[in-house]
Amino acid sequence: MIGYAWRDLLRNPRRTLAAMTGVMLGVGLFSGVLFFVDGSGATMTARAVAPLTLDIQRIVTAEPTDLRLSERISGADALGGGDRAMIEITATNGGAVAANDVVIRDEPPRQLRYLPETTTLDGTHQPDIDGDSPLSHGIAGFGMTIGRLDPGASVSIMYTIEATEAVPDVGSLPMRATISSREQEVPIAANAPPVLPLDELLSQIAAIPGVAAADALGMVDLPPGALAAKGTRVGDPIRIFAFDQRYLDHYPSIRIVSGQLASSGALLSVEAARSLGAEPGSEIELTVPGRASSIQLRMTGTVDLAQAQPLFSSRKASKLEEFLYVPDVVVISPATFRHVIVPAFDRARAAVGTSTKSFPVLEADVLLDRGPLEADPATALAQTSAVTEAIGRIGPGQGYVIDNISNALAVASVDAATGRRMFLFLGLPGALLAAFLAAFAASVLAATERREHAILRVRGADRRHLRTIALTKSLAIACVGSTAGVLLGLLSTAIVLGATTLFAATTAELFRSAILSATFGLVVTAIALYAPARRSIGREVSEQRRELRDAPQPLWRRYGLAVALVVTAAVLEIAAVRGGALDPPTGSVYSGTAISLPTNLLSIPVLAWVGGLLLSVRFLVVLASHVPVPAHHFGRVVRGVSGRNLRRRASDLTGGILGLGLIVAFGTGLTLFAATYGAAKDADARFTLGSDIRITPSVLATGRPGADDASAFLVPGVVAVSPVVFDVENAVMIGRHNQQRENLAAIDPSTFSGVAPLPDQVFVEGTGADMLAALAADPRGVLVDEGTADDLSVDVGDRVGLILALGTKREIQDRFRVAGLFERFPGMSEGANLVVNLDRYRAVTGVRPVDFFLARVEDDSAAGLASAIGSLSSGPGQAVPIHIDSTETTLAKDQSSLTAINVNGLVRVDTFYALVMSVTAIVIFVFGLLLHRRGEFVALRALGMASREVRTLVIVEAAVVTLCGLAAGLLVGTLTAFLSIGVLRGLFVLDPQITLPVGRFAAIGLVVLAAAVASGLVAAELLRRLDPAEILREE
Amino acid sequence: MSGGLAVALVGVVRRYEAPGGTVTALDGVTLSILPGESVAVTGPSGCGKSTLLGLIAGLDVPTTGTVTIGDRVISSMDAEERARARRHDLGLVFQSDNLLPYLTATENVSAQIALDDRVGAYARSVEVLVASGLAGEVDALPDQLSGGQRQRVAVARAIAHHPKLIVADEPTGSLDPPNATAVVDLLLSAQRASGATLVLVTHEASVADRLQRVVSLRDGRPIGDSAPTSGSAS
Average pLDDT in the A261-268 region? Predict the structure, then answer.
């Protein structure tokens, strides 16, 4: 029997090939998707951490101090429930100067209860306060103020507790007392180990496996006027940074422009040096709180810090992504910082009545060795988290850790999982289609198979023999089809993704995917080929004939599956919309929140796809069965025959239309999805950047350009330029009841609309054009973001006060009127809260330079952008050093890693398979037609029908199936794409706008039509070659 | 009356390549059939009857020799010319009816007339079907007809366009005697009415005897050619 099966497969190559093609395409597509996920996931870690400039920061909150606090429970090693004991707290000042405003706070551990009125200070009773212990009273748990603690002095506090439950080991109870002072604001815990000196902290961190470097960074802000040279003072606030050459080596965004970093001197930022007219070698003066005299330092060089992310990234947990740039900077050595600056501030802090707002911050900036990080973000996250925990264990309670890399990886790992699900939902329908295709091929060949089984039975084969034949054939098709499919999947993914990216995945991952795919192939074969064959073998012929007679309609039509699927999809969609699942995103890669794509949202398009297609096919079949046929007039032979054939055998076309429609819908949906996805990414990038290009004059530019210099950037390839003033927290908005710091942008309304995208959806009650017109018409107008307007209780038309150029010597207050509200404003990556007219801003503040220019290019393709950037660099960039960002660079650094994944690549893989499957489906249909109808066609030939007329009959039928399949597929594919795009709203800032890739649609249609016509021609040629006499005798 | 066509086969040999070697189905057959004559071709299975009929109908061409229908050498024509010849001059009846299952009886007949580019196909079809005793079945689909009715529709299709040559390949092979008789009656009456030539392959002596002339074949060669003994004269 096995030999028979083998010969059957070899001697019927067309039949074998038809069944195997479905399996091969199915496994090819399934494995292609899995390989794609492997390859993409393997680069996700690298992509997630690439934009990070600073991996981990350990902020030092406890500096070595002379205050000591000890706490113990005296008189017992163990306590029974209801036992009493004394708690003794001793505070000591071991230093040489007094500690002022000393506060001690304590609460007994959970298992113990404070006994009222038992507290003593150096033996003196301390009364309870409102029934609470004086060491922890009120809602906030205020502590006991000791006052001044002189050098060498100590105080002793005691109180009595009662155990509320048995405590077998008193020594294991956590002691909670803390001490703080005016000089030591961060509370020190009782029994704390000695505070680690910074050098020791750095060396311990550097010794942790996985840490590439740990460098010290000190910083403090000084008030305006604190920096002077050659008798000139800088009128703006100053920031001091302290780092060494190693730090400089590890963070290349800090660029030395002239001179060098020297341990005894200071570097000045380019802006500060320019303000002072200082040059390397100049003496500078720093006025620091807590010092009677200024600090004299020799300037050793200038530094460009405009891109120095590690220095200016916000350290506030809620604003970690913000780049809070301060132009006037002095860089000194860590030694100078620790030995000169920090003690001065300590003295200032200790002085009663001090008004110093900023105090020195010390931190250890940690770079990880990224090489050994696992490719999978989740595994990499476990690695970085382990490092973070190890850092946190060093000197516990003496600081806190900001873990930027784990935040990014946490988001990336969720993104990777979401991406995998998205990939599977995008790719799996294709694999299901291939299974359908295999089943379709099998059903087309089923009649032949049944006939052969009947002959074998007549010759004496029993059911066991037939089952062996079916199993052997199915296994052979599954094994060969699966192997070929895995190779095809690997090849297609390697072509689209690139071999390097694909093989970045581990061999184990790729092997697992290959095995999974082969298993899928076996399942597909079992469902599509073996199960129907086995079922057929198990029944008598008369039984099958009865079933065929009684059930002329397929199962899905009898049970109303189409309507059920469409209704389910509709219900889920309505539930998703009402539940807010499609609302705009709240996630941010910086705040460690990933974007979520619930599985039920992803399943809606799949349900709509199958349900919609089944429904469309029913409709088309009903439509075809109403093809008008004249009752008493036959007409010309081809028209008469084919018209009646379509009308009376429309349901015979169902399989072909359904198969082709499903494939075309899949391809169409993916194409539309990919086009919209790509357009949404580009629109987001353009909105975030503000235009195609952002030109930021470098700090190295001696004369920073103003608004009037915009025309200088109108080089070939650039069609419009608009100047913008923008900074973070550069303004204060004053409402009727309160005020708050805001990010203000000043724009030129007349040119801004020519460069920036102004989608109406981001404006409240009005269009973008209306808003700019309002700003142009009323120079005192201000556009306010919705959140700020809510916070300050202002509305359109209200008068508000604005403090402009906040923190600079040009700081000034003026009155404005709210001209409009917006949700988001284009062009300000940190987010603008207020937008004013640039002319008015300049008039009020007198500030001439602008922060950047937005430019629109003639051709926004990658080549067009590159050309425009080249023109800018070689033109105005030669006169004024400029930094140029484009939508391309924004895409690379500002978007969620989920939007950065290669959806287009996956879609290319899917589209390739969709096209191959479409062609295969129509070929199977046409040759199935040939197989079933050859008797009819040959009879027509025998009656005298010309070959071209027979050809026309075949092509008409194939074309009808193709056109119906295309129509249903395009319709349903577009519908499913709409649903999929609804899911996309979670990924982008702006609502994705449907982008119809008409060219690609036409290409899909033309390829399928061409395949139909070609297979029709081939089928007609095969018919022509048949021996009519023989066929007519057989039939 | 359209009149009949003469049929002439001269030295016709037909060989086929088969897995077991070359098979000679007809081996130097020479045969003349007069216009309007009705001829039965008989012989045992595999003697070459259907091959001979296929050559006369232009469904096949001889390996050597010539087949002439009327004044045209059909064996020299290409497939399209032979098809054209069939649609105009030939009426074909197969052993199984080979009706198109999605056309009614009238439409099956109309399709043949439409192939001949004649107008009034529908009316002529109904006329022929009524004459064939199928007045109540003109709008029935083949599935709704009995085997005998289907074969009568097939005969109606073969004669509806007034062919000059009617070729029938065992038209009664799958029918019971009453239906077989009815079908042969139909063929003969149509042949007589139109004066067409009729060539009918059969292995039933009772059918062959009703035709004017009987040609017997064995192993691809004519072994007898006799005038009919009864049944065809009147």
Answer: 88
The string of pLDDT tens digits covering residues A547-570 is 555 545 665 566 678 888 888 888
| DSSP calls for A647-669 | HHSGGGGHHHHHHHHHHHHHHHH
What H or E segment, with its residue span, contains residue A124? strand A124-125
Please check the confidence at residue A133 and state whether its pLDDT lies above 90. yes
CA-nearest residue to A649 within chain B is: B102
Spatial strand order of the sheet with B197-201 comes to B90-93, B165-169, B197-201, B38-42, B213-218, B221-226
Interface test with B, best of A7, A632, A634, A644 (most B CBs within 10 A): A634
Instruction: Please state, as a whole number, how many other Cβ atoms lie within 10 Å of the Cβ of residue A122.
Output: 11
Residue environment code for A462-486, b if the CB has 16+ CB neighbours within 10 A, otherwise e: eeebbbebbbbbbbbbbebbbebbb
3-state SS, residue B41:
strand
B95 in contact with A, Cβ within 8 Å: yes
Alpha-carbon span A466 to A540, nearest angstrom: 13
pLDDT at A597: 56
Strands of the A144-149 sheet, one edge to the other: A144-149, A99-105, A178-180, A188-189
CA angle in degrees (0–180, nearest 5) for A67-A68-A70: 155
Distance CA A371, CA A374 (A): 8
Interface contact flag, B79 A944, Cβ < 8 Å: no
DSSP state of A846: -
Other beta carbons within 10 Å of A941: 24
Looking up tokens 């040759």 gives A927
DSSP string, A364-387: EEEEE--TTS-SSHHHHHHHHHHH
Closest C-alpha among A610, A438, A602 to residue A524 = A438
The answer to whether B127 contacts chain A (CB < 8 Å) is: no
SS3 B221: strand
Q: Do B83 and A941 touch (CB under 8 A)?
A: yes
The Cα B189–Cα B187 span in angstroms is 6
Amino acid (one-letter) located at A119: T
Query: Distance between CA A636 and CA A566 in Å, rounded?
Result: 42
In this prediction the pTM is: 0.70
Residues of A in contact with B121 (CB under 8 A): 634
B55/B165 Cα distance (integer angstroms): 13
> For residue A290, which phi and psi values (nearest 5 degrees)?
90, 0
CB atoms under 10 Å from CB of A428, counted, come to 15
Query: Model confidence over B72-111: pLDDT tens digits?
Result: 999 999 888 998 888 888 999 888 888 888 899 999 999 8
* From B83, B101, B113, residue closest to A945, measured CB to CB: B83
Q: Is B67 on the interface with A (CB under 8 A)?
A: no
And the tokens for A914? 């969709």
Distance CA(A305)–CA(A252), nearest Å, equals 10
Helices H, strands E: what count in chain A? 33, 32
CA distance B9 to B11: 7
Distance CA A382, CA A376 (A): 10
Planar angle of CA A533, A646, B122, nearest 5 degrees: 130
- Identify the DSSP state of A170: G
Q: How far apart are CA A181 and CA A349, in angstroms?
A: 10
